[in-house]
Design brief:
- The structure holds 2 protein chains of 2 kinds.
- Chain A is mainly beta.
- Chain A is about 0% helix and about 50% strand.
- Chain B is built from no helices and 10 strands.
- Chain B is about 0% helix and about 45% strand.
- Chain B is mostly beta strands.
- In chain B, the strands form 2 sheets. In chain B, strands 2, 4, 5, 8, 9 and 10 form a 6-stranded mixed beta sheet that branches. A 4-stranded antiparallel beta sheet of chain B has the order 1-3-7-6, with no helix packed on it.
- At the A-B interface, strand 4 and strand 5 of A face strand 4, strand 5, strand 8 and strand 9 of B.
Chain lengths: ~110, ~110
């Protein structure tokens, strides 16, 4: 099965700074690369995703970059705000029937 | 429209008792998934349904766990003879179709086994 790792496991930034979270995976057949945000007491919510035929996708302050050769993709958050504080999960997959989640990254944005 | 709902939101039970967790997917979503999230950990896949059938039950941790889905909508996850290690948040997600990658999650049921 898919082996997924996220780094770092925790990340603390000052409000306004950028944050980058990296996800590495093992299955070269993976073709869909989403990032989920989980706030305290809630279920994960999709915030951005990218497919294997695209190298980068941006949505306002959030972007995802993909390197299929190296089998990793990253989440970039610019101009961080306190409401960005949450746990972020990557979940690369190739079949859409289930998601293999990374271990999560706890992002803390200090005002 | 309404999202995925789960009930109860919290459940405290005694070791050895059975519990039933319920998931109401988004209307019209044919695929439904159950995950388990232990405290401070990532999400562990348990089982998914395509319509009413569950092609892959290999993610269920033990034979004390079972799940069913009737009418292509509501699903229940049953844990028999609960153990303390079953304490976790149980999350349900649904998607429009099987192989539709975007999954929409419910708020979860927090289970505590004393």
């Amino acid at each position: 099965g898919e082996n997924v790792e996220q780094h770092p496991s925790t990340l603390s930034v000052q409000e306004g700074d950028s944050a980058v979270i990296k996800c590495t995976y093992s299955d070269s057949a993976s073709n869909y690369f989403p990032w989920y945000k989980q706030e305290l007491g809630k279920g994960p919510q999709l915030i951005i995703d990218i497919r294997s035929n695209v190298g980068e996708k941006k949505d306002q302050r959030i972007a995802v970059t993909l390197n299929k050769t190296a089998k990793h993709f990253s989440l970039h958050i610019t101009e961080t705000q306190p409401e960005d504080s949450a746990v972020y999960f990557c979940a690369p997959n190739n079949a859409g029937n289930m998601l293999t989640f990374g271990g999560g990254t706890r992002l803390m944005v200090k005002p | 429209g309404a999202g995925v709902s789960q009930s109860p939101s919290n459940k405290v039970t005694e070791k050895g008792k059975d519990v039933e967790l319920r998931c109401d997917p988004i209307s019209g979503h044919t695929a439904l998934y159950w995950y388990r999230q232990s405290l401070g950990q990532g999400l562990e896949f348990l089982i998914y349904f395509q319509g009413n059938s569950a092609p892959d039950k290999s993610g269920l941790p033990s034979d004390r766990f079972s799940a069913e889905r009737t009418g292509g909508s509501v699903s229940t996850l049953t844990i028999q003879r609960t153990q303390q290690e079953d304490s976790a948040v149980y999350l349900c997600a649904s998607s429009l179709e099987w192989r539709e990658e975007t999954q929409y999650f419910g708020p979860g049921t927090r289970l505590l086994v004393l």
